[in-house]
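Action item from last week, closing it out:
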Amino acid sequence: METEPHISFENIPASAAVRDRVQREVDRLERFFGRITACRVIVRRPQARRRHGDLYAASVHLTLPGGREVHADRNPPDDHAHEDALVAIRDVFAAARRKLQDDVRVMRGDTKLHADQNIAVVRSLVAEDNYGFLETDDGREIYFHRNCVANSGFDDLRVGNRVVYSEEAGEKGAQATFVRQL
């Protein structure tokens, strides 16, 4: 990180245990993405009325290269899980980590590519033995079993139906691992 993390406390005294926990969480973020340029963390107790039973809130603001920013905050929920400041810190950093992961994927250009769907026609069915054959656009024949048909749809298949499929090499040639009727 280019600058030290800035940790602020609002309506609570500064605590070494809280600072240590925040630093450990920041270190985890840096291990995932080492190019974080700045980090600001605020731990606060919005009520500031009682000694026990107050709920803590926390927020994290990260600055990344290229002007990108990640912001996460956790305000006290109704279930009182955030009566401990360390729990609020854990939750806010978990949210920040998820948002950082999403931003890093975008920055790196890591996008999930879906392969083109394979389409075939049901050429034959042997219902009593629970299998059949597909014919692909290029004329290949692919074996499939009842168990690979989505949504228990084997009984609904008819010769001539168009299907989407996935295949792999089997012992006796190509075989479908997934079949879904279009």
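Closing note: The chain has two helices and nine strands.
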